[in-house]
Amino acid sequence: MRSGWHQRLTVWSIAGVMGSLAFGPVTEAAPPPLSASAAILVDGNTGQILYARRPLAEYYPASITKIMTAYLAIQDGWHKTVVVSPAAAAQIGSSCYLKAGERLPMPAVVTAMMLVSGNDAAYAVAQTVGGTVPRFVAMMNRQAGLWHAPGIHFDNPDGLPDPRHLVSAWGMAIIARHAMANPIFARIVRTRVTALPPDPTPRVFYNQNQLLYTFPGAVGVKIGYTIEADETIVAAARRHGVFLIEVLLHDTPAGLWPDAANLLEWGFQSYYPLTLWRSQAVIGRLHIAGRTVAVTSRVPVTVLASRQSGRKGIRWRIRPSPRLSVAAGVRKNQPVGTLEVWVNGRPALQQPVVAAENLPPNPPRMTYRWWWLGLPSAVWLWGVRVRRRMKGIGAAHLFPVRR
Q1: Of 189, 197, 294, 364, which has the most beta carbons under 10 Å away?
Q2: What is d(CA 252, CA 237) in angstroms, rounded to the nearest whole number?
């Protein structure tokens, strides 16, 4: 196999030839003005960034923290019974009016928590799932790390102000994408009304996310407010095959809902789903060590393309797997690399690609051990020299020179 630099040079040269779907000027509709200090809008399916303002800046999150709390409750404690401790019942701020000693099913508590941001419910969930709140917080941070969510530093399960409890817009968008992929979570955050068992009368809760009632296609996910965090929201909506997730941090009371609606609307008006390659369609050929193999994807390759630039703003390349060697051959459907796509200069997609064909091993090369051919000659020459030398010595002894 050729050296690493040669492999990279070959792949980059092919990407330069094949990596543009079209050429031309790239334009994009201007996004709406926002009052939020940090914001991001992403494709909920792929994570493609459509808009970003200070996406890595860290702010207080308030109750959007509970997105992670609810996700872990679903994953690790969905069939448990929540026993409300005195400490949970005493939590300040927004409340589900839980009473110490109550025993409630986890699904009911989590749903109430997500609809009205109950801090008492979040604390009770954390104690039930994690054993203790610090252990649950460790689970929250561990999960954020597994998802590679940047700028996430959880220190409690409810979002109450804490100098060590900070998030970034991009990190929360990644967390929301993973959470929304869970059907139970997705069902909860689009629920408009729920209730807890009588105490002595049913406690009825209505979802505080106004977008569910006013924005066409809204499907959740969570709002938050504290004096330190100001207004925050993670919102999601679906229309005509497009799934968008937005995060707004440190917004104003007057700006939150217009910002949330306008940014989502801008996303739907500015982008549309574009399938670049259908499933099993040949994307290109990967060139490694003087050999080529056609590559494809097991699933369709779809991005959100700008309505202004369309295909003109799309670039792509195929990056081979680091340890891929074609000398031993490649099997059809064997993973061989990653397809990377950019839309208007922003990373849009990373998707595994596989071989579209069988590539047989390199034929065995005929190797000659040349030293075997040279050995007889070397022995013969050595023998000649020895004989000549012996003759010279014999003559000198038999016929000494007399002076």
Answers
A1: 189
A2: 22
Q: Is the pLDDT of residue 227 over 60?
A: yes
Which of the following is catalytic: 3, 35, 37, 63? Answer: 63
Residue 25 reports pLDDT greater than 70 = no
Determine which one of 3, 20, 35, 66 is catalytic: 66
CA distance to 31, 261, 374, per residue, from 38 (Å): 14, 16, 76
Q: Of how many residues is the chain composed?
A: 403
CATH class of 38-251: alpha beta
CA distance 266 to 246: 11
- The Cα 250–Cα 266 span in angstroms is 20
pLDDT digits (tens, 9 = 90+) for 240-250: 999 999 999 99
| Residue ranges of the binding site | 222
Whether 66 is a known active-site residue: answer yes
pLDDT of the residue at 1:
35
pLDDT digits 0-9 by tens, 64-123:
999 999 999 999 999 999 999 999 999 999 999 999 999 999 999 999 999 999 999 999
* Distance in angstroms (rounded) separating the CA atoms of residues 344 and 125: 43
Q: Cite the annotated binding site for substrate by residue number.
A: 222
Q: Is 391 part of the annotated catalytic residue set?
A: no
**pLDDT grade for 291, boundaries at 50, 70 and 90:** confident
**Average pLDDT in the chain:** 87
4-24+274-355 folds as Peptidoglycan synthesis regulatory factor (PBP3), Domain 2 (2.60.410)
| Catalytic residue flag (residue 117) | yes
Residue whose pair of structure tokens reads 């040949």 in the numeric block: 282
Nearest C-alpha neighbor of 34 from the set 220, 215, 251, 231: 251
Domain boundaries, the chain: 4-24+274-355, 38-251
